[in-house]
Design brief:
By secondary structure, the protein is mainly α. Helix 4 packs parallel to helix 6 and helix 6 packs parallel to helix 8. The radius of gyration is 31 Å and the shape is globular.
Length: 608
């Protein structure tokens, strides 16, 4: 009986893949006899790179005549699988420097493809460019060769700082996967899944969904035409489609083009259809944990919009369904984290309590399952709970202290749960609105941990953490907060981070407010001149800084309009100002002569 989209019927027959321009029997190269142990691709597979390098060095010393390309391939694969930063470049360098006397085999070029495929941080354009170069050198591409190339092209990993460029790159890469697919003689389901993945990564949600549905329909059509063929949608195919629907739902809700409920219904329909297929006897496809997590994630992302106030409750319903179904649909720590995220995003008064409840349930299941690793809470789980308490720093700190307790416990000897940089940032941002001193305390703890960081675990400060404390101290001026603000500013100034001009503006504002009264004239004058000297020394004199002095808030006594005018005239007594004063400030933020004149004549009551 014909079904409307989606349609799925699967046979268990495997497909034999022959590369498009392979000579006859080229696919049998893997069946050649092993002349030496290292001709077996599993040779020293579990050994670290250093052991492989030593083995090759010893072989070159003891039996140099037997060293061949396959011996170098052992080390080359070791470099690829080390997954260290710069591995692709080191793999390429190894080929250039060590295989110059040999003719690299297709396996060598496939290893370079794999290196770029496994590179987690390289720019997408560079990865694709290098992968295509090495693929073109392969004389007889296999299915694996094509899939390694498709893996690189379809990842969709781009820097989004330049949004227009990111849109273009992801779309171009998706189109490239289509070209690769067209060049193949016998693609299989995994081949099409790479194309689906590429289009799911395109940053235009409408185009992404349309193309994913198109290619999924194409797979179903091919499956109907040849039920015993090698192209048949599987669980991953439908999961990618579900993800595309989820992304489009959020896009519509955010853009005001709808609520996204139709897309949620489509995801539910796909889950139901996959279950029907399993019930019909198709055991290789079923709605698994990953598929259900996509639905929970969709609710979590939609919970930030007013029209989806029911999203946290809907996410909870899905999680309870998973727990009731069990088996391959049993939830993992990500399932719980996404439910917690739904509450966090909703920013309801009860968000923190519901987040804490689900965290406790996760711990219960973890213990009841004999500590199943998939149910173990992670630092990311805890960070989402911290976010749910973002307006209640006292309760947030209780969760944070629990993390510290677990960190020090004996059962945490493999460091599975330790606060990371985000954990500290959440604490600092929450406390700085309520109690600057506690924000400074956690910043100092983070700075100490950054100093003590190891390769196994490291945390880092970021400029925002210094800036937010100084900025918020200025909003609640006091002698105590000025002392804290100066301390944090000095931390910032002596850190590895480049100081920014606005931090001087906030520090100046903090000092002017704290020393606003007439009785503070001497302290204020000393503070202002010291701050100006430091600002000029750092080359961060900006228009905003000058305006804070010349045109900022003034009072009936102490820091008056007259006092402001006289101070500005004394400091900036020659025009133009030395260029070195603003050498580290963007040109558009440089001081203009008009910035020295007062335009604001409003007199305010004292801030204290």
């Amino acid at each position: 009986m014909h079904r409307a989209l989606p349609v799925f019927r699967r046979s268990g027959n495997a497909a034999s893949i022959i590369a498009p321009h392979s000579p006859p029997f080229m696919g049998l190269r893997c069946m050649s006899l092993f002349v030496h142990d290292w001709h077996n691709e599993n040779f020293m597979e579990s050994e670290p790179l250093e052991a492989k390098q030593k083995w090759l060095s010893d072989l070159q010393t003891s039996h140099p005549s037997v060293v061949d390309v396959e011996a170098h391939l052992v080390v080359l694969r070791g470099i690829v699988n080390s997954l260290k930063p710069g591995s692709p470049q080191r793999a390429e360098e190894y080929v250039f420097s060590h295989l110059s006397g040999f003719e690299p085999t297709d396996e060598c070029y496939e290893a370079l493809l794999e290196a770029w495929s496994k590179s987690p941080k390289e720019d997408s354009s560079l990865c694709v460019l290098r992968a295509k170069r090495w693929f073109d050198k392969i004389k007889a591409p296999t299915l694996q060769s094509y899939h390694l190339l498709l893996d690189v092209v379809s990842k969709g990993r781009v820097k989004r700082s330049n949004r227009a460029r990111a849109f273009s790159i992801t779309e171009d890469n998706a189109k490239e996967t289509e070209k690769i697919l067209e060049a193949m003689v016998s693609p299989n389901t995994n081949t099409y899944n790479y194309v689906l993945r590429a289009w799911s990564k395109v940053l235009n949600p409408e185009l992404s969904l349309r193309k994913v549905v198109h290619w999924l329909s194409k797979m179903e059509q091919l499956q109907q035409e040849n039920p015993s063929g090698c192209i048949q949608p599987n669980t991953k195919s439908y999961a990618i489609a579900m993800q595309a629907y989820a992304v489009f739902a959020v896009y519509r809700a955010k853009a005001g083009k709808g609520e996204g409920r139709e897309e949620l219904e489509q995801i539910e329909a796909l889950l139901k259809y996959m279950q029907e297929l399993k019930n019909d006897g198709f055991q290789e496809i079923e709605p698994n944990t990953v598929a259900y997590n996509i639905l929970i994630s969709a609710h979590a992302r939609l919970s930030q919009f007013p029209q989806h106030q029911d999203a946290p409750l809907e996410a909870e319903k899905v999680l309870r369904r998973m727990m009731a179904i069990g088996n391959s649909v049993y939830p993992d720590h990500l399932s719980f984290s996404k439910v917690i995220l739904a509450w966090s995003n909703s920013k309801r008064p009860t968000s923190g309590k519901r987040a804490a409840y689900w965290l406790s349930k996760l711990w219960e299941l973890y213990e009841a399952s004999n500590r199943n690793e998939s149910l173990r809470p992670t630092v990311n789980t805890y960070n989402v709970v911290l976010k749910a308490w973002q307006n209640d720093p006292k309760n947030m700190e209780k969760v944070f202290v629990e993390m510290l307790r677990i960190e020090r416990s004996e059962e945490n000897n493999n460091l599975f749960l330790r606060p990371n940089s985000e954990s500290f940032a959440l604490m600092i941002h929450a406390w700085v609105k309520v109690d600057v001193s506690r924000a400074v305390m956690w910043l100092e703890e983070l700075m100490q941990r950054e100093k003590d960081s190891t390769t196994e675990w490291s945390v880092t400060t970021v400029p925002d953490l210094f800036q937010v404390i100084v900025k918020n101290a200025a909003r609640d001026p006091s002698v105590d907060n000025l002392v804290l603000g100066l301390k944090v500013f000095d931390y910032y100034r002596s850190s590895r981070h480049p100081l920014d001009a606005m931090s001087y503006v906030w520090l100046l504002e903090l000092g002017l407010k704290t020393f606003s009264k007439q009785e503070n004239d001497r302290d204020r004058r000393e503070f202002v001149f010291d701050t100006v000297n430091d600002c000029c020394s750092d080359g961060l004199m900006s228009a905003s800084f000058v305006k804070k002095l010349s045109n900022g808030n003034t009072y009936y006594e102490g820091w008056t309009i007259e006092e402001s005018r006289d101070t500005v005239a004394e400091i900036f007594n020659h025009w133009p100002l030395p260029s070195s004063w603003s050498r580290n400030v963007p040109k558009e933020q440089h001081v203009k002569e008009s910035d020295l004149k007062r335009h604001n004549f409003e007199i305010l009551p004292f801030p204290l």
